[in-house]
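[step 3/7] inverse_fold.run input=structure_tokens len=289
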């Protein structure tokens, strides 16, 4: 499928005669230390025998050792390691999917030149699933090695100053976070749960934990706020404050008398939850339990 770079084909034009060698991708292809990159990650693709021993002369990606011609049931021919690394680079550089980068490789001579091809091939280099397997076998350490080699080339070409690599600034403003809005109903429900847990740790037998009613009130407050039924929402939050006050009362009395376990400190803080500011707010309009 792939022609040898050292062989001249009379019937086909070489890719370096078809493209502008001053293109950034063509320049990068000539500056990348491909042999070092392949040597750094080649050990990750060694085949292993049935007893788990590595077989150095059989690797999943790379040059195949010349052997005596014989029939084999090993499967499809292996893909050169440089092509797989180049596909991984171009996938992230041009924001392509696995299927997209394989299909676009067959239509772009510059990409084929970057992959080490001498002649244009009007066919995909491999299946998209092969790229998925390659990425899994490469692992996080292998990806970091490829990234480090890219940075080293950028420093050698003076595209990046060494001082710029002394500090890394990561902007996570668009990163999704599992943080719920601290609404009154949610805070009161959390206070009820903590008070019940502190009572259990302190050995206090509560007559009622209001578990079922507390969860129901928390859900109702969120639904009422979403439906803009603020009177019903405030009524549900008021009931939650009452429940927290009833649960905080026995533990608070024991804490003031200096009795009980250190877990009773929860009442000193949790008891204040019933005195949340009664102002017009979004109540349960955020994410509620």
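[step 3/7] decode complete -> sequence:
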């Amino acid at each position: 499928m792939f022609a040898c770079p050292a062989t001249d084909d009379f019937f086909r034009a070489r890719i370096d005669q078809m493209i502008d060698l001053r293109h950034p991708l063509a320049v990068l292809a000539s500056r990348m230390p491909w042999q070092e990159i392949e040597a750094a990650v080649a050990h990750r693709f060694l085949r292993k025998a049935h007893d788990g021993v590595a077989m150095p002369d059989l690797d999943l990606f790379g040059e195949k050792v010349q052997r005596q011609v014989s029939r084999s049931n090993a499967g499809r021919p292996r893909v050169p390691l440089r092509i797989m690394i180049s596909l991984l680079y171009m996938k992230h550089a041009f924001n392509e999917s696995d299927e997209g980068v394989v299909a676009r490789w067959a239509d772009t001579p510059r990409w084929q030149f970057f992959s080490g091809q001498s002649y244009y091939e009007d066919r995909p280099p491999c299946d998209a699933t092969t790229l998925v397997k390659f990425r899994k076998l490469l692992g996080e350490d292998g990806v970091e090695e490829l990234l480090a080699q890219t940075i080293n080339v950028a420093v050698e070409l003076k595209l990046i100053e060494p001082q710029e690599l002394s500090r890394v600034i990561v902007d996570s403003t668009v990163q999704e976070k599992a943080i719920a809005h601290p609404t009154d109903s949610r805070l009161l429900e959390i206070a009820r749960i903590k008070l019940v847990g502190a009572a259990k740790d302190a050995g206090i037998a509560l007559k009622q934990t209001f578990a079922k009613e507390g969860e129901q009130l928390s859900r109702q407050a969120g639904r009422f706020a979403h439906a803009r039924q603020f009177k019903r929402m405030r009524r549900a939050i008021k009931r939650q404050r009452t429940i927290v006050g009833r649960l905080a009362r026995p533990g608070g009395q024991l804490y003031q008398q200096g009795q009980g376990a250190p877990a009773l400190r929860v009442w000193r803080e949790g008891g204040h939850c019933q005195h949340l500011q009664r102002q017009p707010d979004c109540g349960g309009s955020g994410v509620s339990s």
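[step 4/7] annotate
Residues 15-63+78-165 form one domain.
Residues 24 and 207 are 75 Å apart (CA to CA).
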